[in-house]
Specification:
Layout lengths: L10 E6 L9 E11 L2 E9 L2 H18 L9 H11 L7 H19 L9 H12 L5 H20 L26 H11 L7 H10 L3 H5 L9 E4 L2 E4 L37 E5 L2 E4 L8 E4 L4 H14 L30 H15 L8 H12 L4 H8 L4 H7 L5 H4 L2 H8 L18
Antiparallel strand pairs: 1-2, 2-3, 4-8, 5-7, 6-7
Helix pairs in contact: 2-3, 2-5, 3-4, 3-5, 4-5, 6-7, 6-10, 7-9, 7-11, 12-13
Length: 443
């Protein structure tokens, strides 16, 4: 008898065993899949109920017609998430995003629903993930991040024919949690600027730049001398990034070099997209391009900030400065507490954050994140009646709507004349020149 070869999508239903004189074990439905490398492939499902098996067969045929292929074996969500993140997703997102999203996958998604079969995911599993995160006392914003990461992973799984639907689209995403920003008003800004102008503060001009331009932390710390002219070229930013192990390319989560940290691995590398521009400075500090086109901007350098930065550049040129940065780190201390000479190393973002909070304490201002200074800048620009499109360009937002979100609803009358008052405060006749450098403690 000639062998029957079925084509793609054709199916059959069999009784097992075929001999009807023997007790029924199950009904088996088989669908023919596209061959790979000349090897025949089939998808098999079983049920003791003939009608259920027939329904499964028809569902398989519909799914195959929709996506063009189906997996032949079951796969857990954890297995897919691991493969997807290491071999697909990490190739297209930046190192900071890689570190954040890997933590959400390892700490939330996999513990909550990682053991579920990929093809058995239902909306209830997505809701279970949301509840697991908020049940830990974490905010709905974290649940929203997990929802989006899972949705992206399932979108790619659907493209590859591993699932027939993305169940995150069938579930409402969590709402972003409302955050109360610590707004720095005009009086706070004046106190901060007066305190930062005190003799001995090498970073006084750095804080003035943050408040008068709204530049992000990395954009200020990564500013190079040759990108300062009549404009500030904010096309690079300083970031601390995490090295990854390169000793076991087949499974980067299980290093073979016996070192725990990726930075100690002899074959360490930085996980990053191939089209991402970045330059290594030292250790884990890098210069990188902004994450969006809107962040890559050039803004005019006008008085009084121009004079402040020019004085800082004059000092920076007399200091050790191997990377050509406008602002470099303060002198370090040895293990015995001895002050070491300046070495021109970049300012670590963590050190910069601590210096900001210490500055607020000295100025007698309530504590606020360094990033909140951008909200103050937006307020000042609005109150100076700068057009919204210009505000968006100055602070590097992608949309006018984002700039509006940064605008506070504080004391609008007090802010109305803020730019004029701050400019008067920072005029060359008011802000003292920094002292000249002397030896190891030059300023």
């Amino acid at each position: 008898m000639a062998r029957i070869t079925r084509g793609k999508g054709e199916g059959a239903l069999f009784r097992v065993p075929a001999d009807t004189s023997k007790p029924l074990q199950f009904w088996q439905a088989v669908v023919e899949l596209p061959p790979r490398e000349g090897v025949r492939r089939r998808k098999i499902v079983r049920s003791k109920d003939k009608r259920v098996a027939l329904t499964k067969l028809r569902d398989l045929q519909k799914d195959l017609a929709k996506v063009g292929d189906l997996p032949t074996a079951s796969q857990t969500l954890e297995s897919w998430m691991r493969h997807w993140f290491d071999h697909i997703h990490s190739k297209r997102v930046r190192p900071k995003t890689i570190a954040t999203q890997r933590g959400i996958i390892d700490n939330h998604i996999i513990p909550a629903i990682g053991g579920t079969r990929l093809d058995k995911l239902e909306p209830l599993h997505v809701r279970r993930l949301h509840e697991a995160i908020t049940g830990k006392g974490l905010s709905s914003t974290t649940a929203l991040q997990a929802h989006r990461i899972l949705g992206t992973a399932l979108r790619d799984a659907e493209r590859e024919g591993r699932v027939t639907r993305n169940v995150t689209t069938l579930t409402d995403a969590p709402k972003r949690a409302r955050t109360d920003l610590a707004v720095l008003d005009l009086d706070d800004g004046i106190r901060i600027l007066l305190e930062s102008a005190q003799p001995g503060d090498r970073m006084g001009s750095r804080w003035a730049t943050a408040l008068l331009t709204g530049a992000r932390q990395g954009e200020v710390l990564g500013l190079e001398i040759d990108r300062v002219s009549d404009h500030l070229d904010l096309s690079w930013q300083l970031q601390r990034l995490t090295w990854s192990h390169g000793c076991n390319p087949n499974n980067p989560r299980q290093p073979t070099c016996n070192w725990k940290r990726g930075s100690d691995c002899p074959k360490r590398h930085l996980e990053a997209p191939v089209d991402w521009e970045h330059r290594h400075l030292t250790g884990g500090l890098w210069l990188s391009r902004p994450k969006s086109a809107a962040g890559w901007r050039v803004i005019p350098l006008v008085p009084p900030l121009r004079e402040i930065i020019e004085r800082r550049i004059d000092t920076a040129r007399r200091e050790p400065n191997p990377h050509g940065l406008v602002w470099t780190a303060d002198p370090k201390r040895s293990s015995t507490g001895e002050v070491l000479p300046l070495d021109g190393s970049p300012v670590d973002p963590g050190t910069d954050n601590r210096a900001w909070h210490a500055l607020l304490a000295r100025a007698g201002v309530h504590d606020a994140r360094l990033h909140d200074a951008r909200h103050t800048t937006v307020d000042l620009l609005y109150e100076a009646e700068v057009p919204e499109a210009v505000i968006t360009e100055i602070v590097g937002h992608s949309t006018i709507g984002m700039s509006r979100r940064y605008r506070s609803r504080g004391n609008q009358r007090a802010l109305r004349d803020a730019l004029t008052k701050m400019s008067a405060l920072l005029s060359p006749g008011v802000v003292p020149d920094p002292p000249q450098p002397t030896g190891d403690t030059e300023l």
